[in-house]
Specification:
about 30% helix; seven-stranded parallel sheet; alpha/beta; 8 helices; elongated; two-stranded parallel sheet; about 250 residues
Length: about 250
């Protein structure tokens, strides 16, 4: 808003030489931000790409984004293309992930078979650490790279301290940090747009993921896995996974 006000005060007419603007991860832009970009590049054609199911920052507000874009851009001069086929994950991981959503956009799984996701509710953090170390060993034996995905950066630091004396892990702290080889620990908002052979969801318990506005966040974490998905929860599983059909995952 301050940038918009500043440009209006100084009489800016935007970058009129720019002809094409491409925006990725459109689901995490607000309508105001898009309106400002349109104001900043008044002569440009816009190509915007994203997955509304992965709206981490705008959350449930992303559902209405398509309608709001129709007010920003002339519908007669706009084209909406929906791509529903996903090729990242196995059929089993895709089916599990999309069952997390309540009113998500359509997702068609690619027919590539794999193991069912594993959900493990443990009694303590120590048990979760032990289970994570065991799962990492299995992933290494299968020559699969693993990302341990936490809710926040603080959670990632806690997971690192719990694991660093037992396994070789690296914390990813910023978007600009290069993804290193081996096991990484990454907060969910930095995992968006990435993919990994195997994903371990760190502490998907009820006291960590409890608000319904975090449903897209849980979906995003689960859908980062290509071959193996393991979900750990301490004491009680998040209610955001309560609606997932029992036959779509294995309980341990």
């Amino acid at each position: 808003p301050y940038m918009m006000l500043f440009d209006l005060i100084k009489g800016s007419r935007g970058e009129r030489e720019i002809r094409f603007v491409f925006i990725d991860e459109i689901q995490d832009y607000t309508p105001f931000q898009l309106a400002f970009l349109k104001f900043s590049f008044p002569k440009a054609r816009f190509t915007m790409l994203g997955d509304l199911n992965q709206a981490i920052f705008t959350k449930e507000n992303a559902v209405s984004l398509q309608d709001e874009l129709g007010q920003l851009f002339d519908p007669k001069k706009s084209e909406y293309i929906e791509l529903t086929q996903t090729y990242r994950s196995t059929q089993q991981i895709t089916d599990f992930s999309k069952d997390i959503l309540l009113h998500g956009a359509q997702i068609d799984a690619f027919e590539r078979e794999g193991d069912l996701p594993v959900v493990s509710v443990v009694d303590s953090v120590d048990d979760m650490v032990a289970g994570t170390v065991q799962q990492l060993a299995a992933n290494v034996a299968a020559k699969e790279t693993t990302a341990i995905i936490t809710k926040t950066l603080d959670d990632a630091k806690i997971a690192y301290e719990a694991l660093r004396n037992q396994v070789d892990v690296t914390v990813i702290r910023t978007e600009n940090q290069r993804l290193v080889s081996g096991t990484i620990i990454v907060p969910a908002y930095l995992a968006k747009g990435l993919e990994f052979d195997a994903v371990i969801m760190w502490d998907a318990s009820a006291n960590v993921y409890h608000g319904d506005d975090e449903r897209q966040l849980v979906y995003t974490i689960a859908s980062r896995a290509m071959h193996q998905l393991t979900v750990f929860a301490v004491e009680k599983l998040t209610p955001l996974l309560a609606g997932v059909a029992d036959d779509l995952y294995e309980k341990r």
